[in-house]
């Protein structure tokens, strides 16, 4: 049997209007890993009311870089919401627990990246989330087949340079569509 499984690693998942799960309604997810075992990603367009300074104070870290103090912490997904996930550009610095996304960004879950950010030695461009999004084997493919998600190659510029409220439309623009062109109904020929 040929291996025709799709690999959506380093792609954006863009929630379709008919997304049944309210947690993901209007969400853009950066997929860090996708295999036959499942998928893991981070929602990139849901800032919380927590900022970096507040989070770092809870972790007993002093944030030395003032411009970062009011950067929001994001809701990365409903799994492990008590745990931090840092999505960042490759730095060449080996952190204790990092996943290097082939052709894309890195996701680090160890405290050493936060310590590096706090003292100004961490990644220059990063997004910090609480929680992540996860799918079991075949679950994401099923959701895509039921018109739950659009997919497109990820653009780090959208993650780091576009305001959170505009990331959904910016991700759609990569496909050449606007939200007004989307329908909650799936069509089959």
TrEMBL record:
Entry-linked InterPro entries: AlgH-like
GO cellular component: cytosol
Highest taxon in the source lineage: Bacteria
One Pfam short name: DUF179
NCBIfam families: PRK00228.1-1, PRK00228.1-2
Similarity comment: Belongs to the UPF0301 (AlgH) family.
Name of the protein this chain belongs to: UPF0301 protein PTE31013_01360
Annotated organism of origin: Pandoraea terrigena
């Amino acid at each position: 049997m040929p291996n025709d499984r799709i690999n959506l690693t380093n792609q954006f998942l863009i929630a379709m209007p008919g997304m049944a799960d309210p947690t993901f309604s209007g969400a853009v997810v950066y997929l860090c890993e996708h295999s036959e075992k499942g998928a893991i990603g981070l929602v990139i367009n849901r800032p919380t009311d927590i900022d970096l300074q507040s989070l770092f104070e809870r972790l007993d870290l002093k944030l030395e870089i003032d411009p970062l103090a009011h950067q929001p912490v994001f809701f990365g997904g409903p799994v492990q919401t008590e745990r931090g996930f840092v999505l960042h550009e490759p730095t060449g610095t080996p952190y204790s627990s990092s996943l290097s996304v082939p052709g894309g960004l890195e996701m680090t879950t160890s405290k050493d990246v936060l310590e590096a950010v706090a003292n100004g030695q961490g990644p220059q461009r990063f997004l910090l989330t609480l929680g992540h999004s996860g799918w079991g084997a075949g679950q994401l493919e099923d959701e895509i087949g039921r018109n739950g998600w659009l997919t497109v190659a990820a653009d780090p510029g959208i993650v780091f340079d576009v305001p959170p409220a505009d990331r959904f439309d910016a991700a759609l623009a990569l496909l050449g569509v606007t939200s007004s062109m989307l329908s909650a109904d799936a069509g089959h020929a």
